[in-house]
Amino acid sequence: MQIAFYGTARSVGTSANMAAVQAFLANDCPYVETMRQPEKSAAAKDFIFTDCSQIPEAGAIMETCDLLVLNLSISGRGLETVYTAYSIVRKNVIFLIGKYIQSQSEEVMRIAREYRMERSRICMIPYHPGFARAYEHEKVPRFLKGQKESADSCADRYFNQQVERASKAVLTYANRKGDLFYG
Hints:
By secondary structure, the protein is α/β, with parallel strands linked by helices. It has seven helices and six strands.
């Protein structure tokens, strides 16, 4: 299954969010692969993660993927452009907000109402300084494994819960290609 991640703005952390979901799922699904070169054959893989923010073939991949994970800026800027350009209404989509801070819940609800998004399709990955460092040093799987084993603070547990929720949403909705609506 091809899972395409696309960011509506540079600051949404599309690659980092993809790395978090990919690393979380890799514990349960050994055939997870990141695609930076779409022309490589991946027939034996269960999941192929593609960061469409970084490749020229983004449009074609987003049209044919099993699931589009749209990384939003909390301000909602850029969503309308993507909404019209890629006909999200007819696409199997999850909306992911990275670097999320809990005090932004009203903004999330505003975006959900404005674009009529189903709550189960909106996921958040909270800002976590340890995750930011792990992503910088390409140690996300190790970080998530350590987090899972010893979440010391409420912030750590909340981060783990939200990454798990986003990962489960990817598994749930990746199997629903062909849904005619998202909300």
